[in-house]
Design a protein that fits this description.
Length: 346
């Protein structure tokens, strides 16, 4: 499925969010792309930043955002990790070319104007993904909007006011195609924090196509989001949850990604319509439904009483809903016990 085919209440477009889970290793990045493709993902997404475009010196000085499994280590700093895990322009071009060669779409989340230029002007990605951390970064959104690309926005971290400001900023600066992603920026959120009903709320509040960016453990939430008619499902992806790095633990492994992709491929068709449709043919309905039968042997000339009738399969005779019509009628022939009563019998 191509991004230009994305629509609500259709087959969701599945983004395997590789992010920085390649750990700065190009061979690993390509392997992840190939596995994501084999699992059925439509797109792989990376993150485009350098150590100078994402954090200030204070963050590096204080070693903010180091996860618990890093804190006891002293052989590196946060700045060194960020520098090691980033991918440069040459690597972006190489990964985009590899994606093109195997038939999966490539995009990334930029964290600076230079990275926006790279993604849009040089790589012509199908859309630009804006991280929820930049939802209130109005100058940055305005710059992205001027590129006239579809913008996909995660809405974690911020309330409706900031979402509204972001949407208005994009629209007022020339972006006519916006997709919102419901997102909870907790890694991982508790069940009662997932709030999939926000997908409906965002759609109604802004009148924009809406999808879901997932940070839960497992596959339940992204698969359930299909019932909300999402146009996009984004899920972090790894080959090994125990690998050293930021997001591996909350990411889908290949088996889980395949489950999500299979659900996206088939699940939306199960939504059906709001019109009651009877799919069973008449032969099957007749086999399973009931008819009015004689509860005892009824002689010709006898008046039929309610206790003289019963209701059994198959449904080839008079339906039970017409039972009152028979009460008080006179039998025109002898009717055996358990025989299906016909309209011509009275």
């Amino acid at each position: 499925m191509k991004f230009n085919q994305v629509r609500e209440y259709g087959r969701p477009y599945v983004i395997a969010e590789i992010g920085a889970n390649h750990n700065g290793d190009m061979d690993l990045a390509k392997k992840m792309i190939k596995v994501a493709k084999d699992c059925g993902a439509d797109c792989v997404k990376f993150q485009s930043w350098t150590k100078d475009s994402i954090f200030s010196k204070k963050v590096y000085k204080d070693n903010y955002f180091l996860r618990d499994d890093y804190r006891n280590r002293t052989d590196y700093t946060l700045e060194e990790i960020v520098d090691k895990y980033h991918i440069g322009e040459k690597q972006h071009i190489e990964l985009k070319a590899y994606c093109d060669s195997i038939g999966i779409e490539f995009t990334s989340t930029p964290f600076s104007k230079a990275e926006v230029d790279l993604l849009v002007d040089k790589l012509d990605v199908p859309f630009v993904k804006v991280a929820s951390m930049d939802l209130n970064n109005v100058p940055f959104l305005a710059y992205i909007a001027q590129k006239k690309k579809t913008v996909v926005i995660s809405t974690g971290l911020c309330g409706l006011e900031d979402v509204s400001i972001a949407v208005n900023t994009l629209k007022s600066n020339g972006c006519n195609h916006i997709i919102l992603l419901h997102c909870v920026s907790i890694y991982p959120p508790k069940d009662d924090q997932v709030n999939l009903n926000n997908i409906d709320m965002l759609r109604m509040a802004f009148g924009l196509p809406t999808g879901y960016s997932d940070h839960t453990l497992g596959t339940i939430a992204p698969i359930m989001s299909i019932t909300k008619g999402v146009c996009i499902i984004e899920k972090h992806f790894t080959l090994d949850k125990n690998m050293f790095g930021w997001d591996h633990k909350i990411s889908a492994n290949p088996e889980e990604l395949k489950q999500i992709c299979e659900a996206a491929e088939h699940g939306y068709q199960m939504l059906g319509s709001y019109v009651k449709v009877v799919n069973e043919d008449q032969e099957r309905r007749d086999a399973f439904q009931r008819s009015i039968v004689a509860a005892r042997a009824i002689k010709k000339g006898e008046t039929i009483r309610e206790e003289d009738i019963d209701y059994k399969r198959p449904g080839t005779g008079i339906p039970p809903k017409y039972y009152k019509f028979l009460i008080g009628k006179v039998a025109q022939r002898d009717i055996d016990y358990d025989e299906i009563i016909q309209m011509s019998d009275f």
